[in-house]
From TrEMBL:
Top EC class, one word: transferase
PANTHER family assigned: PHOSPHATIDYLINOSITOL 4-KINASE GAMMA, PHOSPHATIDYLINOSITOL 4-KINASE GAMMA 3
Keyword annotations: ATP-binding, Kinase, Nucleotide-binding, Repeat, Transferase
Gene Ontology MF: a single term: 1-phosphatidylinositol 4-kinase activity
Every Ubiquitin-like domain range: 36-104, 126-181
Similarity field: Belongs to the PI3/PI4-kinase family. Type II PI4K subfamily.
SMART domains, sorted: UBQ
Annotated ranges, domain PI3K/PI4K catalytic: 251-492
Full protein name: 1-phosphatidylinositol 4-kinase
PROSITE patterns registered for this protein in UniProt: PI3_4_KINASE_3 (PS50290), UBIQUITIN_2 (PS50053)
Protein EC: 2.7.1.67
Amino acid sequence: MSKAVVALSPVLEESVSIAGCLSDRHLPWSRDSILIYLTVANSVTPMRVLESDSIASVKLRIQNSKGFFVKKQKLVFEGTELARSNSLVRDYGVTDGNVLHLVVHLSDLQVVTVRTVCGKVFEFHVERSRNQIAKRGKGFVDLKDEELIFDGEELADQRLIHDIGKSGDAVIHLQVRKSAKVRAKPILKDLELSIDASNLTDDGTEELRMVCRKPLQRDFCLEPLIVNPKVELPLVVKKLIDPTFDGLERGNHPVISSEGSGGAYFMQDSSGHGYISVFKPMDEEPMAQNNPRGLPLSTDGEGLKKGTRVGQGAFREVAAYLLDHPRSGPCSVCGKEVGFAGVPPTVMVSCAHRGFFNPYGYLDASKNMKIGSLQMFMKNSGSCEDMGPRAFPVEEVHKISVLDICLANADRHVGNILVSKEGEGGQIALIPIDHGYCLPETFENCTFDWLYWPQVRQPYSSDTLNYIMSLDAEQDIELLKFHGWNLPIECA
Ligand SMILES: Nc1ncnc2c1ncn2[C@@H]1O[C@H](COP(=O)(O)OP(=O)(O)OP(=O)(O)O)[C@@H](O)[C@H]1O
């Protein structure tokens, strides 16, 4: 799903009120007025609300003062997402002095890629509403030495990012004028010239590394995690692991997604020009120990959604794949290709790489081993968030609904359905992803965005009904057990 933590700059309460966001109801003398704190990473924003305010109205005020659309916000209090818009602040037990974490979809930000002429790439996240070019960067000594170039032209400081890369894939080149130290030392009748230009790159080895992308000594590992030796990996899963391995072996490191509330890494192919898979480590899930988005640790082990456990998202991702049976009916997974709903092939793996997040800074791969789900990367033209639902074929919506009801998916919002137009004649197919919150212990957070789409008013086709009839919950529980997950009784 497309979200990321966005730091809000601290503002005074007064500035919120000046922005016209506070009505009289919110003035300090209102009886149930409380002061709460919105926080992301290290930034805190005080905000006065009423205990009787709905979550929707709090989000609306954040939108008014900060510009983040309501639909792109996620509010989290003590490990629980304030997901029900009509519920009141007090329904979630939020009281004076409490801290709410705000997670904002990254599409509010624009990613700007700056490539230096010697090949180094920097990514900056630029807020669309404040997108003036500002030249600054770690390691570059003097602003006047820097020049940003787009499409062969130098960019003036006042140009807006928004006006530059309208197509969304513009690359800006950064040219840094640095003089190299040239020393001449007389040796007999000759002069020995030495050139020290190490400042041109952070550690002086960048060019070397770029040239040396040949087979490397192995500084990573990637292996499927098979608990039951009787489990045979299906071919499609092998096709997922092998090219991911090749990509790592060629030195193409995992690329952390700028979206999502947990750590998700795009694993590159051997050419370095495409993605093969998405790796989600358990220790980087929301509220887990090494979450890279700054979400707080869960105090009681419960995940972001009610009835789920922190660190079990990867199991659930794999379970969703295993339980998405082919149309021909439930099967042992060995020969399995595409399931009814088209959950991308997913497998548990252990993977070590120094590029994975850890709070201690640089670690070599052997100290940075992670366990998580590895899912096939699916080509897409965006998610259902990016377009109106009318264009989606009825059958495509129905298949997602069947999957979500079977799995009691507690995280089916429009960002978690990818749209593919790869089919014959550009036919739209919907690809369900992000199943880390399925099979919860309670139904409290099971909300489905597709419930409001017109397709769900159509009856299921006989094919779909036949598929539903073929499902067998007991058999599914056994299947998960066979693969090593003894489903807790509440989830079962
Ligand atoms: N199988 C896939 N194929 C292509 N892109 C994917 C796939 N799985 C995830 N992504 C993309 O990776 C990014 C992060 O994934 P995802 O939303 O699943 O992470 P998350 O941290 O679990 O999110 P959430 O905040 O919804 O829990 C998103 O942009 C998503 O579209």
